[in-house]
Amino acid sequence: MNSKYIFRSERLGFRDWNKRDITALAELNADKDVMEHFPKTLNKQETIALIERQQEHFKKHGFNYFATELLETGELIGFIGLYYQEYKTDFTPATDIGWRLKKTAWGKGYATEGAKRCLDYAFNDLELNKVISVCTVDNLRSESVMQKIGMIKKGEFKHPKLKEYPDYERCVWYEIESQTT
Asked: How far apart (Å, rounded) are the C-alpha atoms in residues 174 and 97?
């Protein structure tokens, strides 16, 4: 709860990552249910590498998939945020909005609340013109959040980073544009 937040929503605080987050994020990344729509769970070393990539991205761009905490308790529930994606598709490079929350945080509206706040940050503070989001074709929960935050489905594609994982390669992509453009 002593964390310094970059911004907040009604119930959530958003901040950069630190070493104290490793254990909680490693538990989340090791959960088969949380990682259902990804090729595999992540171990502690892979989680440390993920946090380091997020920290580097924050230094370079001023945002990342933010460490997301409950304001009431300070509990880290996962991440919600923005990430500049450069993999090769017709709609990238672009800034992606994404989320990954622990199971105890599911079904409470945190992903939608946090994503709406991150879009507000993207358009009003970062002055981005558009934001995309992608997920596997079977990830209906994430797709539902995309719809709830006003994103428009643009199509399906084969994710170039998932070529080795045919069960996960087919993805959908959504987009939302700033209302000021």
From this structure: 10
Q: Which of 89, 97, 96 is CA-nearest to residue 160?
A: 89
**Within the chain, where are the H helices?**
22-29, 44-61, 110-120, 140-148, 166-169
Two tokens, residue 110? 């945190």
Express each pLDDT in 15-49 by its tens digit. 999 999 999 999 999 999 999 999 999 999 999 99
- Whole-prediction pTM: 0.94
**CA 129/CA 95 separation, integer angstroms:** 10
Report pLDDT digits (tens) over 59-99: 999 999 999 999 999 999 999 999 999 999 999 999 999 99
The DSSP 8-state label assigned to residue 160 in this structure reads G
Picking from 166, 169, 131, the residue whose alpha carbon sits closest to that of residue 152 is: 131
Q: What residues form DSSP beta bridges with 65?
A: 81
d(CA 10, CA 110): 10
CA 49, CA 104: separation in Å to the nearest integer? 24
> Number of helices and strands (H, E) in the chain?
5, 8
